[in-house]
Design brief:
The complex is a heterodimer. By secondary structure, chain A is of the alpha+beta class. Chain A has helices at residues 2-16, 60-65, 245-250, 420-439, 450-489, 492-555, 563-585, and strands at residues 19-29, 34-45, 51-58, 66-73, 81-88, 91-102, 107-117, 121-122, 126-127, 134-140, 149-157, 164-167, 173-175, 179-188, 195-201, 207-219, 223-234, 238-239, 263-268, 272-277, 286-290, 294-299, 310-320, 325-328, 331-337, 347-356, 362-367, 373-380, 389-399, 406-412. Chain A has three domains: 17-201, Immunoglobulin-like (Sandwich); 207-243 and 258-418, tricorn interacting facor f3 domain (Immunoglobulin-like, Sandwich), CATH 2.60.40; 450-585, Four Helix Bundle (Hemerythrin (Met), subunit A). The longest helix of chain A is centred in the C-terminal third of the chain and has 64 residues, at 492-555. Helix content of chain B is 65%, strand content 3%. Classes of the chains: A alpha+beta, B mainly alpha. Chain B: Belongs to the OST5 family. Chain B: It is found in: Membrane.
Chain lengths: 586, 79
């Protein structure tokens, strides 16, 4: 059994050594604060059968500062899967899955790109304002490799136009103005390393964002609000001695000082309502340039950042929802950047992206292009909220511009919930109205005032009286109208019908009037009641006039109104103004 | 669900039409508010009409509620 296990283990070891690196060409770009290592490996399959997995070795320093790793077949745009494996003999191992197996004896070329942060050491550690910044790059002349390397070469690119103070020599080594070339070396065994130091001038500001907090607030009313809170610190050589603004402005190095003077933040093309401010308020030293496919914000902080100095600010903008939000039924998907441009070659120690979704979302799923730490969800109550909005919190350490990629948040949302906010506002207004309605029904008078009460009641009676008079007058008018129609049609039935309804209305309203007048008598005394009863008295004369008018109409043969008819009509009209006079006088 | 099978999300109200909606809805809501005030100050304790008051109040608050939400959106508070 033990023997079998030993064989299996031995087999595993041998099985892994099925590759040989025929040629390795490595370029280390150390011109900015991010060390960009691009390695082109050419592997040959020495195994017994087709192989599809290759291990890539990273030195300890590289692995510690590693922020981003990608691998791809050379000349092919597709990316290969890279997975971290347990380290072997001081080398961190990353396994690349080739997807299509490589046959025995065949070769494959793989390009591996690394982004390593915070490995360049400033030396000297402190400089004055007039000095330039020098840094030391620690690396190995031999490419760290899990397999034997037949032929290899390493190129270290240092700053353009900068001084190269020293570089460890591992023969053959070539020093040029902007680069150091190690190699070619032949037949280097696996796990072999040769530490070298390159000391050179690097004035690019080593500005690190210790925190980038990114808020993405989704509103289904058609807007996505993005806000970023950014804390910056210059982690290059510390400024020694005083700072003079005159010297700073007269410095002939201009932009090539190791201070962080200004930068450009590239925002999406649809960004609008852009703001840039800090604790004090708006920082006016910024400008936006609208380009074809982006909006560039040129930012100049309140002061230049020298080594060891720090600052913080907030930048925010609005995006239209239709470009980032997708829907099908009650399913919604937000597709936006997990991390966006701050300035070129930025290093972010901690990225925290918060997505504020509308209230009452369900079944939230997050799909990210790389591994992030999803923190517990939070609730944030804002405008017109009841329970608060769901906040998705995603965190990632050690982020570089290559992490600026899209991620997706899918969730379920009931469209009817859109109505909740306006209805909430309506309910608020309605409650105010209710308070007034209830308040006006309370009686706060200390002593009762019967005279005033009676007057108020009398007002109501008069109102009702005038209503009755109106109705009656309407009845008269209707009758006169039908009489005039009768003149042309000579339809007896219609006229009789009109008479009947008129009589009914008149009697009803007269009864009401009598009733109201007696009520008025009780409330405001005889004087008013007597005046009111005139409404009934003159009604009789009007009634007679109408009767006569009808008789005349029935007799008349002409279509036009005769003199007599006109007289009666005038009487009816007169009645109207008399009634108004009486009502006004009470 | 796959995002490529989804449609672009369109807001129920386009941002360009917010000012018009706000002015119309808030304006009519305020007009009804004025009517409600008239009703309150002119009526005495003998001729109050609860149903009429509630009706005017409810209509006014619906208009004011929607109008004020659109006002918030117009000024940039995306609720």
């Amino acid at each position: 059994m033990r023997l079998l296990l030993a064989f299996v283990l031995l087999g595993a070891v041998f099985a892994e050594d099925v590759w040989k690196a025929v040629n390795v060409d490595r370029t280390i770009d150390a011109t900015s604060q991010i060390v960009k290592i691009s390695t082109l490996y050419t592997f040959e399959n020495l195994g017994t059968g087709p192989q599809s997995k290759i291990s890539i070795g990273l030195s300890k320093e590289e692995a510690a500062g590693l922020s981003h790793i990608t691998a791809g077949i050379d000349g092919n745009k597709g990316k290969l899967k890279v997975a971290e494996k347990p380290s072997q003999q001081e080398l961190s191992i990353y396994e690349v899955d080739l997807r299509t197996p490589v046959a025995k004896g065949e070769k494959v070329s793989i390009r591996v790109n690394l982004r390593v942060t915070q490995v360049l050491e400033p030396l000297p550690v402190k400089i004055t304002q007039a000095d330039s910044q020098f840094v030391v790059l620690h690396t190995s002349a031999y490419v760290p490799s899990r397999y034997e390397v037949v032929s290899q070469k390493t190129t270290v690119r240092t700053t353009q136009g900068g001084k190269l103070l020293s570089a460890t020599t591992v023969s053959p080594t070539k020093q040029e103005t902007e680069r150091v070339i190690y190699g070619p070396y032949a037949n280097i065994p696996a796990f072999e390393s040769k530490p070298v130091k390159v000391h050179y001038e690097n004035n690019s500001p080593f500005v690190v964002a210790t925190l980038v907090e990114r808020f993405i607030e989704v509103s289904h009313w058609g807007n996505i609000a993005v806000e970023e809170y950014i804390e910056l610190i210059h982690k290059g050589a510390q400024l020694d001695g005083p700072f003079s603004r005159i010297d700073y402005q007269m410095d002939r190095r201009g932009r090539r000082q190791p201070a962080f003077q200004q930068f450009t933040t590239v925002l999406p093309a649809q960004a609008k309502d852009i703001y840039y401010r800090d604790e004090i308020g708006n920082i006016s030293t910024s400008a936006t340039r609208i380009r074809a496919d982006s909006v560039d914000v040129e930012i100049r902080p309140r002061f230049p950042l020298f080594g060891g100095w720090k600052t913080s600010y907030v930048i925010g903008y609005n995006l239209p929802a239709e470009d980032y939000l997708y829907t099908k039924g009650n399913q919604y998907a937000l597709k936006t950047k997990l991390f966006d441009h701050v300035f070129s070659d930025v290093v972010v120690e901690k990225l925290r992206t918060k997505v504020l979704l509308p209230e009452h979302v369900k079944r939230v799923k997050v799909v990210t292009p790389y591994v992030v730490d999803r923190r517990p969800d939070e609730l944030k109550p804002t405008y017109l909220d009841t329970t608060g909005r769901l906040v998705i919190v995603l965190e990632k350490n050690n982020v570089v511009p290559d992490h600026s990629q899209f991620f997706t948040v899918t969730y379920e949302f009931d469209y009817m919930d859109m109505l909740r906010e306006p209805l909430l506002a309506s309910a608020f207004f309605f409650s105010l109205f209710l308070v007034i309605i209830v308040y006006s029904r309370f009686d706060f008078t200390i002593s009762s005032d019967p005279a005033k009460d009676a007057e108020e009641r009398a007002q109501i009676h008069i109102g009702k009286l005038s209503h009755s008079v109106d109705l009656k007058q309407g009845a008269y008018d209707a009758l006169v109208n039908s009489a005039q129609q009768y003149k042309s049609t000579k339809n007896d039935n219609e006229l009789q019908e009109a008479k009947k309804t008129f009589n009914a209305t008149r009697n009803e309203e007269n009864a009401k009037l009598t009733e109201k007048i007696s009520a008025l008598k009780a409330d405001s005394g005889n004087a008013a009641a007597e005046k009111a009863s005139e409404l009934l008295k003159y009604d009789k004369s009007v009634f007679d006039a109408v009767e006569n008018y009808l008789k005349v109409v029935e007799k008349s043969t002409t279509k036009s109104a005769g003199q007599e008819e006109q007289q009666f009509l005038n009487k009816v009209k007169e009645a109207r103004s008399r009634a108004d006079n009486i009502l006004g006088s009470i | 669900m796959d995002i490529s099978k989804m449609d672009r999300y369109m807001a129920p109200v386009s941002i360009a039409s917010l000012p018009l909606l706000t002015i119309f809805l808030c304006g009519f809501g305020l007009f009804l508010l004025a009517a409600f005030t008239m009703l309150q100050v002119t009526s005495t304790k003998y001729n109050r009409n609860l149903l009429k008051e509630l009706f005017v109040a409810a209509t006014s608050s619906i208009f004011l509620g929607f109008g004020s939400v659109f006002l918030l959106l117009w000024v940039g508070i995306y609720v």
